[in-house]
Amino acid sequence: MTNIAASSYLLAAIGFLVLGLPVLSGWRGRAQRITLPLACLASALWAGVLSWEAGRGVLWSPLSGLLEVVRDGAWALFLVALHGHWRNQAGRLRRSLAIAAACYLTLVVLLALALVGHGTGFLVAFGSLPMLAAFVGLSVYGMLLVEQAYRNKTIEERWATKFVCLGVCGMFAYDFYMYSNTMLFREPNPDLWTARGVVNALTVPLVAASLARRRSWTTSFSVSRRVMFHSAALFGSAIYLLAMGTVGYYLRYVGGRWGTVMQTGFLFGAVCLLGVILFSGTARSWLKVSISKHFFRYNYDYREEWMRFTRTLSERGPNLGDRAIQALAALVESPGGVLWQREGVHFAPRAYWQAPAADAVEPEHSPFCQFLESTQWVIDLDEYVDSPDKYEGLAVPDWILDLPRRWIVVPLMLHEKLFGFVVLQRARSPLKLNWEIFDLLEIAGSQAASHLAQEDAANALMVARQFESFNRMSTFVVHDLKNLVAQLSLMNANAEKHKNNPEFQQDMLETLNHSVQKMKLLLQKLSRTENADNKLPLAIDQVVRGAVALKSAFEPHPQLVIEAPGLKVLADRERLERVVGHLIQNAIEATPRDGHVMIRVGIRKDDKRPQDAVEIEISDTGEGMSEEFIRERLFKPFDSTKSAGMGIGVFESREYITELGGALEVSSRPSLGTTFRVVLPPYREAAPAMT
Questions:
Q1: In which residue ranges of the chain is pLDDT below 70?
Q2: Please, are residues 668 and 587 in contact by the beta-carbon 8 Å criterion?
């Protein structure tokens, strides 16, 4: 077994040496020119020492452990360099490498403690768990670097780097499996240890395969703030838990009979404290501000911030003002604020987000509002109090300075006019305001103002539509009253001449009775809370007869022809009768006294329809209409050629017929007459079910 292990690690040493020396002499890459040969030579030295120790019967020594740390560190540096170039970003490169070095140094310190204790008896008291945990941590760290290096490559670059990533990841994955197995069983597995040399040797051809594609290795790489935030939080939590676990272990070791109780209580309290810190808004704010301040050139990732800002404003909710304050506050880690918006000649508080209510109003022509509108500046209230000369001409009202935790005033500008302003509370963690933050708040304020103005316009449009609906209903009511007045006026004009005629008296009584019934229906319609039609199966000949009867007193008298009695349609009787009556009334008014008005009820046969339709044809020999008038003016609401007309009768008729699933057709020739055809779908009773 000893000879097999020695041969296994010797094979790995030869492979990495053969790979590293040519690469060192002929490699033309930039960031990887040093790191890749260094990683290969460190691996060759480590494997050579292990082969020599295996030949002497030594499974593991502090020397091979330290060389393994060096090997892992060299491959980690290579993976960091594989991410790409940092041109014009030298400061960011140094900070990124500093983070990697800090992570790596922490693990090295733990390993050094374990390795020093190997010969002093320290491991007897402390156990080998910290050493194994550190090696496991190095393996996990290496796999994470491989994942980051591969994931941030383009499709073409992945083609070039997939073999080296696969080989290095396989090497770290095997170490993770071997050390995890050792931690589980508290002793190394000789077979796994022996095969480790062959596994490392197999990574050599994978790295060599990628060397032939090395021109596509490099790419630009940057770490987002979100990844940085979560990585820092995760790494900090890991260090905290590792430190608390170490303290807990010592408590158990020195606590005697109370050791287990002390360890359990301490670890539970430590975990609870960690949870409080992780879910603390102040702690999260401090971490975000620190990361942006120390690791990035700019304070914001503008793409991510703008997506979050727009998403907050676009969320569904009853109060857009609250969401506008929340979106602005999130840019500077503010816990709350108040929004003032223009209402008439002053600005009044409209929304509050996690802030106490305020009732103060500010006139639109006050020096404060005039200053905001003319300069469009974001005002740092602390700076204003300390150095008022920097805000020449500004007079902040006392009620703003008296607000609790007041910090920043953000103007909401719309079309160069002050639409409103937001007073934000002081940030959870200290944040130094600079030009970048001021510019972002100014742009964000304008965006919030446009959303608020759009909501106000939508509300105004909704109110206008409600009034429009009411006015439209009133117009139809006036139209119905006009028809009733026309009937009564005609009857009154003929009463003096025909008052002794029994037939006229009978028609007069019928007309009065019908007018009373129409007025009652009109009053019922106005008093209903819901103006819903009562659609019922109607005999169309009876509906038309009723409409014709109401127009019988007019001249020329309309003549009715029923070609197909018994036809039924599904409609509201009162509305359908009004539609037919209006068309008959128009025909009478357009026809001279010696003319003719004919109404025909029959069946409409049409090859384009799946079934026959009910047709009401109203024709006259009147003045007629031109095609241009029919096309452009006939169905246009509020457009009438009559001096007392409303211009909505034909429009309402077509709307209701279309609502019933029918059509209103018209054909006319000037001086020859006009024909209206009302085409409606027939109503047929459902056949009884077969039993």
A1: 1-2, 22-33, 60, 83-130, 156, 212-238, 240-263, 266-267, 270, 274, 276-302, 463-480, 482, 487, 520-533, 606-611, 637-648, 686-691
A2: no
CA distance 12 to 205: 11
- Which helix (H) or strand (E) segment is 470 a member of? helix 435-498
649, 628 contact by CB (below 8 A): no
Per-residue pLDDT, 368: 92
Strand partners, 410: 422
Q: Assess contact for 303 and 285: CB atoms under 8 A.
A: no
CB atoms under 10 Å from CB of 467, counted, come to 9
Can you tell me the distance from the alpha carbon of 109 to that of 557, in angstroms, rounded to the nearest whole number? 113
Peptide bond into 556 cis (omega under 30): yes
Q: Which residues pair with 363 in a beta bridge?
A: 346
- The identity of residue 571, as a single letter, is A
C-alpha closest to that of 375 among 338, 324, 413: 413
Q: What is the pLDDT of residue 557?
A: 86
Domains along the sequence of the chain with CATH: 2-221 (1.20.1070), 533-680 (3.30.565.10)
Question: What pLDDT is stored for residue 86 in this prediction?
Answer: 39
> Which run of H or of E encompasses 411?
strand 406-414
Question: What was the pLDDT predicted at 330?
Answer: 87
Whether the CB-CB separation of 597 and 588 falls below 8 Å is answered with: yes
Please give the angle made by the CA atoms of 363, 369 and 374, to the nearest 5 degrees.
145
Q: For the segment 416-472, what is each residue's pLDDT rounded down to a tens digit?
A: 899 999 999 998 777 778 778 888 898 899 999 998 998 888 877 776 665 566 566
Query: Which three-class secondary structure state does DSSP give residue 487?
Result: helix
11 Cα distance to chain centroid: 57
Determine the 3-state secondary structure of 371 from DSSP: helix
Residues 296, 92: contact at Cβ < 8 Å?
yes
Beta bridge partners of 340: 349, 421
Ranges of H-type helices in 255-301: 259-278, 281-295
> E strand or H helix at 417, and its extent?
strand 417-425
> Which residues sit opposite 423 in a β-bridge?
338, 409
Spatial separation of the C-alpha atoms in residues 197 and 10, rounded to whole Å: 8
Tokens of 412: 């909401």
Alpha carbons within 13 angstroms on the beta-carbon side of residue 428 total 18
- pLDDT tens figures, 46-61: 888 888 888 887 776 7
Residue count (the chain)? 691
Query: What is the reported pLDDT for 216?
Result: 47
Q: What is the 3-state secondary structure (H, E, C) of 513-549?
A: HHHHHHHHHHHHHHHCCCCCCCCEEEEHHHHHHHHHH
> 129: which residues sit within 8 A by CB, 6+ positions away?
183
CB atoms within 10 A of CB 628: 9
Q: How far is 229 from 227, CA to CA, in rounded Å?
A: 5
Token pair 């022996």: residue:
194
Q: Both tokens of residue 185?
A: 């069983």
The distance from CA 684 to its chain's CA centroid, rounded to whole angstroms, is: 50
